[in-house]
Amino acid sequence: MDSVLRSENISKSFGPIEVLSGISLDLKPGEVHAVIGENGAGKSTLMRILSGHIAPTKGSLHLNGQPITFSGPVDAEAHGIVLVHQEILLAPDLTVAQNLFLGREIKRFGFVDDRTMRERTRSILHELGTNIEPDREVSRLSIADRQLVQIARALLVPHKVVAFDEPTAVLTPIEAESLFEIIRKLRSQGVAVLYISHRLNEVKAVADRVTVLRDGRQIATRDIEGLEPLEMARLMVGRDMSKLYPEKPKTASDQIVLTVRDMVVPGYVEKASFSLRRGEILGFGGLIGAGRTELFEALVGLRSGHGTISLDGKNVHFRDAREAMAAGIVYLSEDRKGKGLLLQQNLRINLSLAALDKFSRGSFIDSRAEENALDQAIKDFDIRTRSRDLLAGQLSGGNQQKLLLAKMMLLEPRIVIIDEPTRGVDIGTKEQIYRFIASLAAEGKAVVVISSEMQELIGLCHRVVVMRNGRVAGEVSQSDLSEDAIVYLATGVHEERAAEIAAGHA
Amino acid sequence: MTETVLPTRAEKRKFAIDMRALSPFIALIVLIIAGALINPDFLTASNLLNVVTRSAFIAIIAVGATFVIASGGLDLSVGSMAALTAGIMILTLNSQGSADMGTLALGMLAAIALSAACGLANGLIVTFGRIEPFIVTLGTMGIFRSLVIWLAAGGTITMRNLELRELYRPVYFGNVFGIPVPIIAFMVVAAIGALILYRTSFGRHVVALGSNEDVARYSGVPIWRVRTLTYIIQGICVGIAVLVYVPRLGSATPTTGLLWELQAITAVVIGGTALKGGIGRVWGTVVGAVILELVANIMVLSNFVSEFLVGAVQGAIIIIAMLVQRSVHRGR
Q1: Structural class in CATH, domain A244-501
Q2: A388/B211 Cβ within 8 A
Q3: Distance separating alpha carbons of residues B20 and B17, to the nearest angstrom
Q4: Using a CB-CB distance cutoff of 8 angstroms, which residues of chain B are in contact with residue A375?
Q5: Is B7 at the interface with chain A, CB within 8 A?
Q6: Interface contact B16, partner A, CB < 8 A
Q7: Which fold does the domain A5-240 belong to in CATH?
Q8: What share of chain B is helix, strand, coil (3-state, %, to 5)?
Q9: CATH 3.40.50.300 domain locations along chain A
Q10: Tens digit of each residue's pLDDT (9 = 90 or more) over B88-106
Q11: Has this prediction a pTM greater than 0.90?
């Protein structure tokens, strides 16, 4: 069969750095083509080129055999290529129908025709197998429903190619399964589906062909027949996966440093309890929205909540992050750009911000000491930057994370809580961050790692506490650590059964 | 991926010019040259000293505004606050019989205490009430202004004791080694302001708060205290400006300090401080205040534009300054 959209030797450079080189991809009508790769492998760049958001530096695109250049995403959409974004891009205060037709409202005598739009919305959502009310405000929908609305919005225009960018990141297995049903339906209608993900089991379940990217290069394009997730992982990473994670440090003591009893965070967490030992890496697993971040934000005083927190056997309560820091507890936010670093300020100001007292002589800041600390941090954490006068926002995701680690380590904490330590971080930096976390535990600090990457929890942690809907669903000990055990606790269903249940619901 | 940071190189840093920090100084030089070309009387010591003296009130207030704005806040009430403070100060002086230094000191103390209290009120309402500073200070602006009008019963509050007036006079009209006292006052305020903003933890916290409040909070910055303190500093600056202002006319009227908030904010923005917070430039602010007064002066000395249009030109300047800031920001 002829391809509907084909890329020939596409390359993309930002300045001197080539992020994609020589990608040749063809999408056939009625197939699901998965693109897999680690964070930073170039998946999103490729997707943005194919959907007209950015132009390739080299190479060409062909639509139905004809060479074509898109002037922008609107142009690509006019040619039937639509992209379902990873983030939810909807106006929360507008209704479902208003969002669906935002910017392309149906008009009658110059006024918006709400009735027609409502009916169209209802029928499109029905086709997708859902009964979301068109008049409901988007802010009142669940994350999964919002994603469906976003898909409906993308499918509103005539489409030949539909691209999904990591669509299941926020979905439970059951919700993901109904998304796969939608994708299969699109395929049966002769639409070419581009599916970007790094979740290999999903890819195995839904894709017909797989293209693997690594460091901006096309490693392989293969049929899914005979390609198992393990082999995909090897192709993606390009080396033995077992080396990614350092050896787990022996838990030196049974000494409990922190106990949390019946922690309640209104609206997020109901009665969560756990304890943390010295020299231990404790994982926190669960789906996005399970209340993990909120639990720890309340613990360190960044959010209101109540419960019994005992540190070294003494009951404590922190009113703000400053008090928690003084007690030796630091929390590194998952939202690095919004809550971790001042993107508009330079590295020095960011580095010393939390531990500014250490750089003060009398009431004045000792800027030489700050400069020395920056030199030390750049060396210790291998922060790679063109110039030390750069703004934090100009660093790559991995280097931002290293800077954030360096900033918080200046406080010399005893308990380190890291939320999504490797989100948006390339594989090389991941390995460095894992080694650093292991060294913290080896030094006798207690570490909490909150992560949505199950492999990360399994590879890094001594124990994993799993949360579901604001409660602690259970704990997986080191000998029992497996993806299935975590998924079971996180969702209440075994992975194989999720598909059956979804089929039953559909 | 192979490049690692090189140690600081002095020569490299010297050439990394920050246009944002430099542009007010360039504008100042351009204005002085323009003024000199337009009228030979412009570039005389007496005229320039006069211009800088006149800019002192706004400059002192604007140094405080630099703190508020750099932390992401805004204070619209400074003009009304100045009028109220001046009124209360004069009433305090009038209530005391004797014309000695003690009375004067008491009046000054009352002025600073009142303005600091006004700033504290603004700060507490903004932080604990969690209301937009624009709204809070719009409200207090109305309250302060109305209180002056009420105290003056719609008329003028005047210093009645002529001896006391004579004693107080040098604070505006006097000079030390040929430099007028108001200029000394405003240089001292600016120097202290710069020291606090650039060299102390509090100053760093102000900038962090203006850059991103969440990051500041997650970094353990005591944001409520820092924010309230910026409004108190603003209040104290208003108080100091009033100390210099009162001996000039010896009275406070319902129109005292009218539109000073506009001029203070204009000075701050011309000076390169970001209106959305995160960047604070004390010396830029000082230059900004001088620029505003220079423009007025040049307009009076030249015959191109009526001096009644000074306000219009100053209004245009703030818009131009914002456009320049935007383009400089994009360029980086």
Answers
A1: alpha beta
A2: no
A3: 9
A4: 7
A5: yes
A6: yes
A7: Rossmann fold (3.40.50)
A8: 75, 5, 25
A9: 5-240, 244-501
A10: 999 999 998 788 888 999 9
A11: no
